[in-house]
Specification:
The protein has 5 helices and no strands. Helix 2 packs across helix 3. The protein has a single domain, classed as 434 Repressor (Amino-terminal Domain) (Orthogonal Bundle). The chain is about 50% helix and about 0% strand. It is globular and about 35 Å long.
């Protein structure tokens, strides 16, 4: 049977990297990140950001492109697994 989860049971592999990149930005909370995404046209709220970062929510390819843009990285960097999975 197929499972759409990472080895650690997360529903995405980019959430850890998104959290890491967001925390490196000065004064960017989950709410602020959601606001930044909404200004670009992606309708996500703070709760969705929280679920993505914790690995509880899937991320679509469209959302991934917006995250890459607002975090000023390539989408490939968001998908890299060079950070250890923390859960």
């Amino acid at each position: 049977m197929y499972k759409n989860k990472s080895i650690s049971g997360r529903n995405n592999i980019c959430g850890i990297k998104i959290r890491e990149l967001r925390s490196r930005m000065n004064d960017v909370s989950q709410k602020r990140l959601a606001d930044m995404l909404q200004l670009l046209g992606l309708d996500l709220d703070k709760n969705a950001i929280q679920r993505i970062e914790s690995g509880k929510r899937f991320v679509t390819d469209i959302e991934l492109r917006y995250f890459a843009k607002v975090l000023n990285v390539s989408y490939e960097e968001l998908l890299s697994e060079d950070t250890p999975e923390a859960d």
